[in-house]
Amino acid sequence: MCQEHKPIGNPSHFEGTEQEKTTAHAVDGTFAQYTQGMKFFDPHVHMTSRTTDDYQALADAGVVALIEPAFWLGQPRTGLASFKDYFASLVGWERFRSSQFGIKHYCTIGLNSREANHEALAEQVMEILPLFLQKEGVVGVGEIGFDDQTAAEEKYYRAQLELAKEMNLPVQVHTPHRDKKKGTERSMAIALEHGIAPNMVIIDHNNEETVKSVLDQGFYAAFTIYPFTKMGNERMVEIVKQYGPERIMVNSAADWGISDPLAIPKTAALMKIKEVPDEHIRLVTYQNALDAFAQSGQIQEADFIHGLEIDQTQKFNGNTVLRGGQAPRIDKDSLIIR
Amino acid sequence: MKTNLQITETIVAFANETELSWLAEQKTLSGKALALAFVKVPRFISKKIIESSEFSSWTLDQLVRLDILIQLDAANIDSLFETAEMQEAVALTRSLPFLPNPSTYLLRATDAVRSNMGPVFDAIAFGNTYPKDYFSEAAWNQLVLKCIFNDKAIHQIIGLDERSNQDLANTLSDFAHERWAADRRVPSQVWRLVPRFMNETLQADIEKLAQSENSRDVLAASLVKQEVQIPGSTQGIWHELENPEPIYTA
What we know:
By secondary structure, chain A is α/β, with parallel strands linked by helices. In chain A, 38% of the residues lie in helices and 13% in strands.
């Protein structure tokens, strides 16, 4: 649900000096030298739509944990079973796939705004949400909110806010592509109306127009670095410079569209080049996301910060099973495949 | 066979008071509410490792999940299988031998063998009596072969010697030939599956192993020969080949 390709008419908001611009272009492809030793947490990335090449690249770039929000698969589902299998794959197969690369995989579960418009099916999905929301490693309700801003979208947004409140889970709110400013304000007002503390709500896909109000009202402001339709990372650097790091987080929202799973490390490199303090980089690319979603009680930094520790349940007679980060790696540059 | 009493006693021995009172409260529930308690276990129960002979290598949260499962009806157990996250799938799979009417869950057990999630596969393959007691010969052979194919250590399978068969020995030989053609090898201890089923092909395989530059393969070949001559004489000696070797992922 994260794309609308309009490559034309996306103005450059690069506001650095000419010298910075030259440096930024010169480091293309070798950005990793600027992020040595940094660890990243991507709080919004749809790994189900990505390949193992991406997992390998994420691990190499320092991404140690991520959150995969439940979303729209590019076309509508026609039955409850498809939703059930999708949710189950987010807590099952995808979790395992990620662990093979040493990356801790969490998810948020919810009925996305587009499919909220199929009311008969939406009702059935609401029935199974509580079961999935209680599962280990489910760190919030998401991504939910408005797309077209219809009555049905509002109805299920409200119903899911109630679920989040009941279960004391953070909420990951998708904001619309069209009429974004109004949609964002409306999303926040409704959350407050339901008595949800703003610090339990992560308003996603912000831009220069929405950020001030989101921060002023005490919500977390997430920024999606996504080519053409959302934020570019040059603009992101300017936002961090202007607003500081508090309650701001960066994500890639990489999915089945033309997107970049390395958006966070690349943005961190650009911030480093443009002399954003290291601590600010750490907060917006790692710590703030962790703090926001750890309010679910389902995230322990110790579980991933030193690599995925071996799970004692996976130990039998002194032998260990395939452990996180130990899947045989392939050398991508090698012509010979063994 | 472990009884419900053993499960309860072990939980009491390893859980703290808060955990026990949460569990007691949940066990007054039934149906969907009790199924939800199964889901919520990690929020209230630690993953402490159980050190008891009956439940060796289990964790407390798994044991509590088992305790809840044996009280659940089949429809709710099915629904838990269908919606399981990875740790739930592991707990469900390890619990299979203890459920009422275990044979009705055969498809769940063979699905666990088909799983590509390492921990789920291991939960059915290793330290679990279900395959030995309920698998057909074909399903059993598939389990053992998948272990060998994935370079997992087969001695962790319960009933390995008891359920060995001619078909499995023959297929192992075929598989080893494929590996050798690709300049790869199979873990040495897998040859423990063949002594009772020797034929010309297997004989040739063992001769080939005896000439190997790998000392573990040479030892495997000599153990097979000894077992053929004096059945039962190598019991316990295969142990030397059970320790990790580079080829193992498990």
